């Protein structure tokens, strides 16, 4: 019964919780029920991840947002698979945001977000592509800082990207990407970060300084 109070200690089934998001306007109540469900039954949503494509947009959004709450390897590998398919910018950005908040990321998830952050070859990069890659860069730094296995690899990737941008001609898109890479490095907090920053202290752009 979706009218039950949020304070009710009863644990609802996964179907009931997802129906709450589908039909109720009380998102805080539904979210509380989802947290309670996953606390006691971490695998409760597994079946629904398997039938993702058949679900409504509302429930799809809930399942993506729930990945950090589930947190286990299966949920993270599902997100990796999600990134491997052609998706709209809206869904990819939502999934990147979910990845960003995973507390103990698996190396496969970090690698998948790194792939999303790589600029495509050639010119004429679409705004949507750039938005996606900048969001992926910020998530990448955060994830790498929580994944010792990938920490140095990601730091080296971001440091090389900075070197390439330093040699560019200062186009607005390059400056925006440089600022994003620096924020990603800040999210990561690698021990060698301070070795990279002196060059940027006197940069003409305030977003870089």
Walk me through what this model shows.
- Helix content is 63%, strand content 0%.
- Mean pLDDT is 84; it is low at 1-6.
- The chain is mostly helical.
- It has helices spanning 14-23, 27-40, 46-50, 57-70, 73-83, 89-100, 107-117, 127-145, 148-166, 172-188.
- Write down the oligomeric state: single chain
Q: Give the low-confidence spans.
A: 1-6
Strand content: under 5%
Helicity level: 55-70%
Number of helices: 10
Structural class: mainly alpha
Mean pLDDT: 84
Which features does this protein show?
209 residues; mainly alpha; 63% helix; 0% strand; disordered N terminus
What order do the helices and strands come in, and which of them pair?
Layout: H1 14-23, H2 27-40, H3 46-50, H4 57-70, H5 73-83, H6 89-100, H7 107-117, H8 127-145, H9 148-166, H10 172-188
In short:
This protein is mostly helical.
